[in-house]
Amino acid sequence: AAAPTSNFLRAIIDNDAATGHYAGREDAHGKPLPAVVTRFPPEPNGYLHIGHAKSICLNFGLARDYAGRCHLRFDDTNPAKEDQEYVDTIIDSVRWLGFDWTQDGSEHLYYASDYFPLLYQMAEYLITAGHAYVDSQSAEDMAASRGSFSEPGRDSPFRNRPADESLDLFRRMKAGEFADGEHILRAKIDMASPNMNMRDPAIYRIRHAHHHRTGDAWCIYPMYDYTHPISDALENITHSLCTLEFQDHRPFYDWVLERLAEGGFLKRPLPHQYEFARLNLTYAITSKRKLLQLVEEKIVDGWDDPRMPTIVGIRRRGYTPESVQLFCERIGVAKADSWIDMSILEGALRDDLDPKAPRAAAVLNPLKLVIDNFPENDTVECSAPVHPHDPSRGVRTFPISKTLWIEEEDFMEVPSKGYFRLFPGNKVRLRYGYVVECTGCDKDENGKVIAVHCNYFADSKSGTEGSANYKVKGNIHWVSAAHALQAEIRLYDRLFSDPHPDAGGRDFKLALNPAAKTVINAYLEPGMASTLPDQRFQFERHGYFVADRVDSQPGKPVFNRIATLKDSWAK
Ligand code: ATP
Ligand code: MG
Ligand code: MG
């Protein structure tokens, strides 16, 4: 593989390596720790999408390139929206993308909920040390006293209550004595800070809710901004990468770590948070909430609908893990938000599959071609390379006979200028078969062409000496009608026809592309009957296709179009 392109994060890591900032560390068992430890921290409240893939490739990719390690950590501190179903699909998606969290036989798979007891102890310490207090204001009063960007906040009347009173209340919060929202634990920082996130942010709230892993053991839950830095430190993370919207949260991230390091709960050197631009992909949406809406309103056929930008959707569509990795490498990481064009994702798929995908013939829009001078009931075997640039992959064979299927577009009764395919009096090559000369066509009562007629030249077969005597401009694909495999093909295209479907809070449903899914019946070369689910092909002249992993049956594959051969959206 090519050397990874440098970026600002690599520069930071290189600098830390040069100064030895994270060198010589050991874990709790005295085992040496790598100088680069990253993590991918999803909340198990939905399916991963292409934006998450960027974060996964970035975190796992850096760990791989710097001989470090990357943890998969579930940020499961919000019981209301989380579920085991999501944990399972996230694990599956990260694995499918090609990444692994085992190192030297140890699995680096973590759950923030496993830290609940420690997070609680640390909160008690913060109270005792005067860094946190229980606030008993109503939610409305708390919101009102927070101030605004132009106006400092006001201290809560409970801010200076004695530490042992806060501690007692906090313990009773934990014991379940209070209802949701009655009290809250807050960090004691600065209600006049220009950074709203430093105005005594909440650390713990009461939530009488069942947690998918801890059950009913807790009725108070730590906030994300409190949990995240501690989880990072407990796991000896070095570079904690997150998206730009967390930039204003960084001072609190550092505040939490400093206070707990002072208290002897955490070891230095502490992890550091860095922010990078999130992925915004044109013709797609990457908001969990909006994706959920598409599923719930049955606008798509589920999370793994091949039109969805979810990882399960992209996978079912036929994208390879390598193509997604290539895409993430190509887009790089930057410190400013921008839009990435969908054509870059599609281009990565083409570049990945072109050298890999076996070729096959498929007629998507069939029209009958009759070779009038071909012996009735006769067949001749034709052969074609599995891959045109790699003879070592052998050949595929299929018969030619008197009646074939060709594409409707490959015949014109009256040719337009520059049209070299079938029209009366013109010769074309039936790819890997014979040269034929068109003699005319049959029409139905409405004047629609229903069959094309031609004669073939018996000495023109591809691969034989005589074929060199025939110079024709047109070269079309075909399948023998009596031998073809009939198969359902789903022609997928971009889900939205507008590059920014949800721009400016617009209703993204108005931007849906009605042509994003077209189901057709096609004719394929006969060998395709043995296709296994998830096998990918280039259907010559059409694009890249995959046997659908859910709906394909033995001997009866169903295909999804992953991408056309060329970008049909380029302006
Ligand atoms: P929410 O917070 O609404 O549940 P989320 O998209 O932030 O949704 P998380 O599960 O918290 O989802 O995300 C896990 C990681 O993926 C985070 O580190 C987050 O920064 C990163 N991530 C999420 N969306 C994108 C994106 N579009 N581009 C790059 N990284 C992303
Ligand atoms: Mg999040
Ligand atoms: Mg988010």
From TrEMBL:
Q: Where does ATP bind?
A: 43-45, 49-55, 243, 278-279
Q: What is its EC number?
A: 6.1.1.18
Major enzyme class: ligase
Q: Binding of L-glutamine: at which residues?
A: 75, 224
Q: What reaction gets catalysed by this protein?
A: tRNA(Gln) + L-glutamine + ATP = L-glutaminyl-tRNA(Gln) + AMP + diphosphate
**Domain Glutamyl/glutaminyl-tRNA synthetase class Ib anti-codon binding per the UniProt entry, residue ranges:** 357-456
Q: What residues does the tRNA synthetases class I (E and Q) anti-codon binding domain cover?
A: 476-548
Chain span(s) of sequence motif 'HIGH' region: 42-52
| Start and end residues of each Glutamyl/glutaminyl-tRNA synthetase class Ib catalytic domain | 36-339
Lineage of source species: Bacteria, Pseudomonadati, Pseudomonadota, Betaproteobacteria, Burkholderiales
How it assembles, according to the record, is:
Monomer.
**Short sequence motif named 'KMSKS' region, residue ranges:** 285-289
Protein name from the UniProt record: Glutamine--tRNA ligase
Organism name: Noviherbaspirillum suwonense
Q: Which Pfam families match?
A: tRNA-synt_1c, tRNA-synt_1c_C, tRNA-synt_1c_C2
Instruction: Kindly list the places in or outside the cell where this protein is found, as annotated in its UniProt entry.
Output: Cytoplasm
Q: Which family does it belong to?
A: Belongs to the class-I aminoacyl-tRNA synthetase family.
Q: Which UniProt keywords apply?
A: Aminoacyl-tRNA synthetase, ATP-binding, Cytoplasm, Ligase, Nucleotide-binding, Protein biosynthesis
